[in-house]
Records
---
Amino acid sequence: MRIALVMEWSTSARNEIVNSVLTKVAEANGHTVVNYGQYNMEDFRQTYNQNAVFGATLLAADAADFVVTGCGTGEGAMLAFNSMPGVQCGLVIDPADSYLYTQINGGNAMSLPYAKGWGWAAEVNLEYVFEKLFVQEPGGGYPPSAAASEQRNAALLTKLKAVSHTSIEDILAAEDPDIHEMVVNAFGGKRLELFRENCRNADILKAVEAALAK
């Protein structure tokens, strides 16, 4: 599995430690991590709205299989990501959240709080959270007796989002100046270069390049 770490400017001081812990656990389970920042306060400042556009594009372009994101509380990033097509993002605060979200909902993104509740031994909780992400195949269901119902509901939610949301291509091509500015800024800093390296969908790449050329 290819995991994208996508953080915002207000949490950039945590980027190095989050990336280190995530990479340690992911690689131990045979997965890879690409750190898209934000790396520090001098880096191009990303908000959770811009991160949502960027994260959804990563998933649609098959540049990532799963996105780890977040903000101060985790709430704003979770809401922004869930507003995007093809994204199912859960708010994860502790290891139990991580396990139950991946097993019951089988989503493709998680949002973590990087300010609220971040204190002594925060990196230990973070490591346990990521361990529970990989403990078994997502979408298995919990408890096992409810697995079939949960899997059906997760599949129906994916279908519901497909008919209730516009496509990522439409978002990238939006004429609204505020949305266009958000799209352009979402690919600021090193992100465009990293996206090009990892993108596996030529049509999405073309849509991104067209948006940035406007």
---
Amino acid sequence: MAFYDLSKEERLVLVEKINQDIQNDLSSDITENIIKYFSDEDTYIRKTGYLAIGKIFYNKPELQQHILSTLKNLLESDTSTTLSASKVRQTVVNAAGEIGKFHFNKVQHFFDVGLFDKHHSVRNAVIGSVKKMGERNPVPVLAWAKTYLKHPDKEVRREICHGIELRGRTHPQDILPLLKTLEFDETKRVSDTLIHVIGQIAYKKGCLKTVVTHLNTWKNKLLVEKALDEIVDVHNRYKKFAVLTQQEAIDFIDGSYKN
């Protein structure tokens, strides 16, 4: 039975069981239950597993080093592309993301490795983790991300661009200098992601002014025009969440962008 087929009470019992099973594994220096939950078909079981790791890491300081070594072994012991193995690595990266919200220096290795995993789900977990870590712990996470924005692998550049988006939704000034390094990227998938991210960081309170002011310093005017079109479009697509109406966004851009 899937996680959300259970009643709320049953889910609470299951979450407590998963937490206890994983803690018992760690205390006994085994990984039987950890692997079972990390490889589960149900996304929410896997999520409960990696959230459990995060909780134990913070609640049981004496287990922190063992948690890190256990996760490292799980990440590197089976690099095959079988579904169960990739699910384990995906969940390991997500668990590292929980730790990296406050201790990025202790888990950077997981993202250096996961970014180049053969399976897309593991790489996607890196993006998701960079998003949540960047939101809570931006300084070291963005410094790390910056080192990959000129990587020769276009997919790495695209994934990092996507990963820093969430921080930009509340603090666009933090990621705009990083995004600018991609303004002349010749790969369409990268430039498309760049334009998408610029749109996503421009519709919350106070963000449009910050974004347009920074875009005035960019040299690739063709890309900037596409980004401004995306910003205008986002103000319509997300009109329930945008601070300005689409017309107000158009008027602001017309008055502020120096083309």
---
Amino acid sequence: MTYEQIEEEISSIPKFSPKASLSNLSAYLEKCNHPERKLRVIHVAGTNGKGSVCAFLESILRKSGYRTALFTSPHLVCIGERFRINFEMCTEEQLTGAWKTVRELMLTGESEGRKPLTYFEVLFLMSVLIFSEEKVDYCIMETGLGGRLDATVLCDPVLSVITSISLDHTEILGDTIEKIAAEKAGIIKTGVPVVAFDEENGAFPVLETEAKKKKTHIYKVRYENITILKKTENNIDFSINSSYYKCNLLSVSGIANYQIYNGALAATAAKILLPELCDEVIREGLYHMQWEGRMEELFPGVYVDGAHNPGAVYRICQTIGAEAKKWSLLFAVCADKDYTSMIELLTGLPWKKIYVTALEEERGASAASVATYFAARTDSPVQEISCAAKALETARKQKGEEECLLCLGSLYLAGELKRQRK
């Protein structure tokens, strides 16, 4: 069986199942002698910035000399992106071996009356099987959806981190910030310290209440304690001045303003986990972090970002609005996202041109409907193009030498466009 066949098999597993439960997954972990218990897990939940915060933490710990494991989702191009040891993707042999083990477990489990595992549960189980054999010092683990009922909540973390919370997946997690925060708070464990943003949007009091119930301390990071010092074309210098961590000079690479907040959260979390960490190690870890699909420059002047909800788009608009260059936009989105609110935010910027396309993903919104919504709300010219590859080709041809193009709206779009570069 080839790696491609294995990836196809895994991809065919249902994403959700009404019969799935944490007790069902626990039974499979029991059959494996609980590999998750061999790991020192840093557990990360939230709406926006989870992947970046995980990557920042991984980079800081690796720069400190620790051996790391990293489990994130979704992947952009290949499933192997989700499983990393010291930031290197696990080998095809490791993934193949883990999948064969899980597949055999499911066949045996079903014969013994257990329910099949869902797609994300399979990936989670594969990750802990691989990582537990690698003698890693720390495993940074990102939740898939929510937190309270997420597969990853079955880990026993040494630290929990909750990133920015905003409205997304409302049909599953709830239609208010407070309801979504309650789901994210599900990762908080008794006695395990928590680091979280206090955004003054109603989320933090929910997290704080849950932390008190679990008799643990919650460390808050506030935006007003993070200051941009200098911004260039390649990096952003910033400072942190909070009760838990103070540093006059840290840097992140790239142009995305929102990454200083993700970096600050990761730096604070690392310092709380390991108080002996020096500023220089944290600085090096933040600056050398690389995370695909987040204001990533695919081609000269062409950036792709996976922002796919109003909260994330708001942060992108802050970055673009502060840039002196002229920008065009390439946009595609899933139909089940709040894309009307995303467009309301985006049309507040003076785009030179807007290209609207459709995703290969079956959940993709109609390009015609999205283009019509854009056109009714902006004076910028709007062009509808049938597929993402053609849209990128057209936009690149029409882009002036001193202009920039931002490709936005979905991680699926980011993945499709990244495949064009390979």
